[in-house]
């Protein structure tokens, strides 16, 4: 069977995005995740199974089984925009590495047809899994949420040891451009000391030049109610713009990294 017929499960395809990679991008959201981050804005991505979610008072089916070829038919529609803007295909989720064969097929199809590729991921899988995707990946957008394993586990359900080790291996491979992204979550990791620790770790990775601080928001809160779940951070307010700017300046004075707010 050709890799173009590899099947996977997605919950959305978003066209004309200017986030999650450079230029205008098409983002394919894969279903399934090994973490349970308390602030997750896509809770419908966490379970691999197809679900029902109440949206605006109506039941909506979340999850669709598709082939690599079917996704690429959507991606191809905007090739002219990728060429003009430097954009392309981005895989997101969930955690794309939970469907490694499908993710690899999508990246390979894009790569072999001349479309730029990016993947937003926590790196939470055996490195052997990641290694198979790297030849087809232009830009790895790797989330690093905390350097403290116990606090990471308390807020995400798992420790961070595997992710940090994989970050070192991905950087050492030199196969894909690596950027670090940090969701800035009050009560979890929004102190200058915690962000500095992450930034120093990122600065020690060969080839890493950019770090993105992503301010916490509550845009996905209604989805929890739609899934019959409780949103645990309902009382937490997004960080003030002034605080984000302070963190950005601290990163830039402590490291040689370019620091971006959002992205």
UniProtKB/TrEMBL annotation:
Listed PROSITE patterns: RADICAL_ACTIVATING (PS01087), RADICAL_SAM (PS51918)
Keywords for this protein: 4Fe-4S, Iron, Iron-sulfur, Metal-binding, Oxidoreductase, S-adenosyl-L-methionine
GO molecular function: 4 iron, 4 sulfur cluster binding; metal ion binding; oxidoreductase activity
Record-linked InterPro entries: Aldolase_TIM, Organic_radical-activating, Organic_radical_activase, Radical_activat_CS, rSAM, rSAM_sf
Cofactor requirements of the protein: [4Fe-4S] cluster
Source domain of life: Bacteria
Transmembrane segments: none
Classification via SUPFAM superfamilies: Radical SAM enzymes
Domain Radical SAM core: 19-258
Entry-linked NCBIfam families: PFLE_PFLC
Family label: Belongs to the organic radical-activating enzymes family.
Designated name of the protein: Glycyl-radical enzyme activating protein
């Amino acid at each position: 069977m050709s890799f173009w017929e590899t099947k996977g499960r997605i919950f959305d395809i978003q066209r004309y995005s200017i986030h999650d990679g450079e230029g205008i991008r098409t983002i394919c959201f894969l279903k399934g995740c090994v973490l349970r981050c308390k602030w997750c804005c896509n809770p419908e991505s966490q379970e691999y199974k197809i679900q029902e979610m109440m949206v605006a008072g109506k039941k909506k089916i979340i999850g669709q089984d598709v082939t690599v070829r079917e996704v690429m038919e959507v991606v191809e529609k905007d090739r002219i925009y990728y060429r003009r803007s430097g954009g392309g295909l981005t895989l997101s989720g969930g955690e794309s590495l939970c469907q490694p064969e499908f993710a690899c097929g999508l990246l390979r199809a894009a790569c072999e047809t001349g479309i730029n590729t990016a993947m937003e991921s926590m790196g939470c899988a055996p490195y052997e899994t990641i290694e198979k995707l790297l030849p087809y990946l232009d830009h790895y957008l790797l989330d690093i949420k905390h350097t403290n394993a116990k606090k990471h586990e308390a807020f995400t359900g798992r420790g961070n040891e595997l992710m940090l080790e994989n970050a070192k291996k991905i950087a050492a491979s030199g196969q894909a451009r690596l950027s670090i992204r940090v969701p800035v979550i009050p009560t979890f990791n929004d102190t200058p000391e915690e962000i500095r620790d992450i930034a120093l770790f990122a600065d020690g990775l060969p080839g890493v030049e950019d770090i993105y601080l992503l301010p916490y928001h509550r845009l996905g809160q209604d989805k929890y109610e739609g899934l019959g779940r409780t949103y645990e951070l309902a009382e937490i307010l997004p960080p003030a713009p002034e605080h984000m700017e302070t963190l950005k300046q601290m990163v830039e004075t402590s490291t040689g990294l370019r620091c971006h707010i959002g992205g």
